[in-house]
């Protein structure tokens, strides 16, 4: 074969020179081709490392009861702080999906993680919040943050398990006093709730579904109390119905009502529907257990009285306010919150319940509207502690709303369904549902009013303007 270059005619050479000249000319067509390339991002390994950190943080927040809107915002801020500006987050009730877009330069990186629900640990939640702050401030890199996150998730609870039992039992005793009972009524509520918690822990180890755990808890709350009442264990002057109402409040405190309403308000309807279904199922289990306990227990004991209104008066107001603060602190203790958070939770709980009492007793406002207004106070307290005390707002809201939960209304509705009639019971249960919704909506509004102003999303680099453009 000849090594001589091919010979072209004059017309072909002229055409080739013109094409080469056009390709080498700068101008809008050449610049236009660069626009779809997109933002500059790290390599695949770095992207996956950042996505994994963000999704693990999101899993902790979501499993702790945080709303989808807040969880998504935290994940986007973490990604932006780690150098990923063009990311999308999609959260459902049981999964988190995160995608990093890289324009036309490379394929997007997408990862998914299932949300594994764990027991409530507010100390772990606070530790994760500190890791988030350090990443956003640039004081730690992604790899160090991932190591610290693994240690926080795998670490033991800060208190022994019996301390959590004391917290749940103390919550029930405080609610019994708040509702108008004496110290003996509170003592019985303490003992019954402690027994329910230990039995529930044993059933949880056996893998019993949460629905049946609620059934067992409701049946024990009513069955044990009615049995004690039937054998004459309650001294004169005690009110066994308040023991049941306090225990039901404890069983209701684990439901994610606030997160459900927050998700619905912010447009995350899929997750809100999933959480609402969970609340409906667990509440149905509680209803079944309470009605079963009442039906069986009342065969061997006289009917229990069910008071209609909470006691009033200056002395009772201050006693109930103190009991509300103790109840909120006991909930935080049962959730393994650190010592500084216990005081913040107590202040929020006392402020919320005192607001409710003043609105009902002085202003004459109905229970639903009064509960919503008091919940706004709790939400405002959560925002203020976030700004000044470094306590995550979820810790304050979960504990602060506990004294306002409609445990007494729920018990009265369950009692009416079992004894008096379906129509009266449904009306009372609907009232309890309205109180719960007002509670969640008020907390969401109060937290929104005090939330720090942040950008709606990560900034994405704009394409360079055309040469010569104005």
From TrEMBL:
Xref: InterPro entries: ThrE-like_N, ThrE_2, ThrE_Dicarb/AminoAcid_Exp
Similarity comment text for this entry: Belongs to the ThrE exporter (TC 2.A.79) family.
KW Cell inner membrane (keyword) present: no
Superkingdom, taxonomy of origin: Bacteria
Full protein name: Threonine/serine exporter family protein
Keywords assigned by UniProt, alphabetized: Cell membrane, Membrane, Transmembrane, Transmembrane helix
Subcellular location(s) of the protein: Cell membrane
Ranges that cross the membrane: 162-190, 211-234, 240-258, 279-297, 317-334, 341-359, 365-385, 394-414, 426-446
Domain Threonine/Serine exporter ThrE stretches: 321-447
Pfam families (UniProt xref): ThrE, ThrE_2
Membrane topology, record value: Multi-pass membrane protein
Domain Threonine/serine exporter-like N-terminal: 52-296
């Amino acid at each position: 074969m000849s090594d001589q270059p091919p010979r072209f005619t004059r017309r072909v050479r002229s055409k080739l020179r013109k094409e080469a000249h056009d390709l080498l000319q700068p101008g809008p067509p050449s610049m236009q081709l660069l626009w779809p390339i997109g933002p500059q991002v790290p390599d695949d390994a770095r992207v996956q490392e950042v996505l994994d950190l963000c999704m693990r943080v999101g899993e902790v927040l979501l499993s702790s009861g945080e709303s989808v809107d807040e969880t998504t915002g935290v994940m986007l801020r973490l990604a932006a702080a780690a150098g990923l500006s063009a990311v999308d987050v999609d959260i459902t009730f049981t999964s988190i999906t995160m995608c990093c877009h890289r324009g036309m330069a490379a394929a997007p990186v997408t990862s998914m993680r299932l949300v594994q629900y764990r027991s409530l640990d507010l100390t772990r939640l606070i530790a994760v919040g500190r890791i988030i702050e350090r990443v956003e401030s640039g004081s730690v890199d992604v790899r160090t943050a991932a190591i610290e996150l693994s240690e926080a998730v795998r670490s033991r609870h800060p208190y022994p398990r019996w301390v959590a039992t004391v917290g749940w039992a103390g919550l029930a005793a405080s609610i019994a006093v708040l509702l108008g009972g004496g110290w003996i009524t509170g003592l019985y509520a303490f003992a019954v709730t402690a027994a329910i918690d230990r039995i529930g822990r044993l059933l949880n180890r056996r893998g019993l579904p949460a629905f049946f755990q609620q059934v067992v808890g409701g049946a024990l709350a009513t069955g044990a109390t009615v049995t004690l009442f039937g054998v004459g264990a309650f001294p004169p002057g005690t009110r066994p119905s308040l023991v049941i109402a306090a225990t039901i409040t404890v069983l209701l405190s684990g439901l994610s009502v606030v997160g459900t309403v927050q998700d619905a308000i912010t447009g995350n309807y899929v997750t809100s529907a999933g959480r609402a279904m969970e609340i409906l199922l667990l509440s149905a289990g509680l209803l079944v257990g309470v009605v079963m306990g009442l039906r069986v227990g009342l065969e061997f004991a006289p009917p229990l009285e069910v008071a209609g209104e909470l006691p009033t008066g200056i002395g009772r107001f201050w006693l109930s306010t103190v009991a509300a603060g103790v109840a909120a602190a006991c909930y935080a203790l049962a959730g393994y919150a650190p010592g500084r958070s216990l005081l913040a939770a107590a202040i929020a709980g006392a402020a919320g319940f005192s607001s409710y009492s003043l609105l009902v007793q002085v202003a004459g406002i109905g229970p639903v509207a009064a509960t919503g207004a008091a919940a706004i106070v709790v939400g405002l307290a959560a925002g203020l502690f976030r700004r000044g005390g470094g306590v995550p707002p979820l810790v304050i809201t979960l504990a602060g709303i506990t004294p306002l939960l409609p445990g007494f209304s729920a018990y009265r509705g369950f009692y009416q369904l079992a004894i008096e009639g379906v129509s009266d019971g449904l009306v009372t249960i609907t009232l309890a549902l309205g109180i719960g919704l007002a509670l969640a909506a008020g907390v969401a509004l109060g937290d929104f009013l005090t939330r720090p102003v942040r950008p709606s999303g990560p900034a994405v680099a704009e394409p360079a303007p055309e040469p010569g453009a104005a």
